[in-house]
Specification:
19 strands, 7 helices, five-stranded mixed sheet, alpha+beta, Arc Repressor Mutant, subunit A, Thrombin, subunit H, 3 domains, Immunoglobulin-like
Length: 372
């Protein structure tokens, strides 16, 4: 149909686009409802009909519609298909010729997903009682030593269970689905690592398509870790290690505290001393600003703010005010200058404001400080 050539082979379909000269492969791994294609033919309505060993399928451009043994179909033959001039589709089978008109086929029938249930769970190949009927189980917990586990499952209402197809995977361990027939409805796993997994199993619909994982069987599997891998064991071991490390660290800190403290104070004093000198040089200047300090210290306003704040706990402007107040303390103690003179001398333009911030800083007025 169109500009495409369809070819079947033992593993699926190859679709060649003659216009773009590209091709694609379709297999059971990416949606094809059969493992291999025996015969293939188009119909007059733009559909593609093909056969697997026991399946007759049609692709309408969007989805597959399949019929199998439950629809009275037996095995098909290799390369035995034809399209009649009147639109009749023909396939050769083991017991004769299948001939039909596509418009007479009910493609919508029997698409309900079979219900699939757990029928047995084994540990070391021995059935394990789970406290309730297997079909009611949603979660299974085992010890880490129990490292040979088998899930057995079955679909309940497929019309021909002997031709049923299944696929399963253990989420958290397997990336791809494993497809099996009706005589292989079991999955065995060995030496799984402790952790959380989810076992999924699906039974194919009567048309050969697969239901979604939400429509299938899902069982949470929890494999408990050994005691030495549990959280409380890690916590205990971690506590011992942390205790030892803290003891060693405490000893090292005591031995190196004086040196580290001296180094820290030296670095702190070096920067703060530069700030103090610059402020002291301009102390009587009420217009001394942060930009001036930043330029002289060769740092940005933001860097100056961060350094001063980290070392003194005060913003730069508050630290400058503190230096003015400290100088005022000295003048109150060592000179006979009055309060207003001292305020102007340390860079305040309003003696009342000076008195207020002095009280906020030291809990008393300048006059009270001098009397003390």
């Amino acid at each position: 149909p169109g500009n495409k050539i369809w070819a079947g082979h033992s593993k699926g379909l190859v679709i060649l686009d003659t216009r773009s000269k590209s091709y694609s492969r379709v297999t059971s791994q990416n949606g094809l409802p059969v493992k291999g294609v025996l015969s293939i033919t188009p119909d007059l309505e733009g559909g593609i009909w093909f056969t697997g060993k026991y399946n007759l399928c049609r692709f309408d451009g969007q989805r597959y519609h399949c019929f199998d043994a439950s629809s009275d179909i037996e095995s098909f033959l290799y390369m035995s298909s034809a399209l009649g001039q009147d639109g009749q589709v023909l396939f050769g089978g083991a017991n004769g010729l299948y001939a039909f008109y596509p418009g007479e086929i009910d493609l919508a029938g029997n698409t309900e997903p079979p219900r699939i249930v757990l029928t047995n769970f084994k540990v070391f190949n021995h059935p394990r009682k789970l406290g309730r009927a297997y079909e009611m189980v949603k979660k299974i917990t085992v010890e880490h030593r129990e490292n040979i586990l088998t899930f057995e499952f079955s679909g309940l209402h497929f019309l021909n269970p002997n031709r049923s197809k299944y696929k399963y995977k253990l989420e958290g361990f397997q990336k791809d689905w494993v497809e099996v027939g009706s005589d292989e409805r079991r999955a065995t796993y060995t030496n799984l690592s402790p952790g959380a997994y989810t076992f999924h199993a699906l039974a194919a619909k009567a048309d050969g398509s697969w239901p979604t994982p939400e429509e299938g069987l899902s069982i949470q599997l929890i494999i408990l870790p050994p005691w030495y891998s549990t959280w409380w064991a890690y916590l205990l071991c971690g506590g011992v290690i942390i205790g030892l490390l803290l003891g060693i660290r405490r000893h090292e800190l005591k031995r190196h505290h004086a040196r580290a403290e001296a180094l820290r104070l030296s670095e702190l004093d070096a920067f703060l001393q530069k700030v103090r000198i610059l402020v002291d040089e301009e102390l009587s200047n009420p217009h001394l600003d942060i930009d001036y300090l930043a330029r002289e210290l060769m740092v940005s306003r933001v860097q100056l703010y961060r350094k001063v704040k980290s070392m003194t706990g005060r913003p730069t402007s508050a630290f400058i005010r503190l230096l003015r107040l400290q100088k005022a303390q000295l003048l109150l103690t060592t000179t006979e200058l009055n309060i207003s003179e001292i305020a102007y001398k340390v860079g305040f333009t309003d003696p009342s404001y000076f008195t207020r911030v002095f009280r906020e800083e030291y809990g008393m007025t300048p006059s009270e400080w001098r009397r003390r």
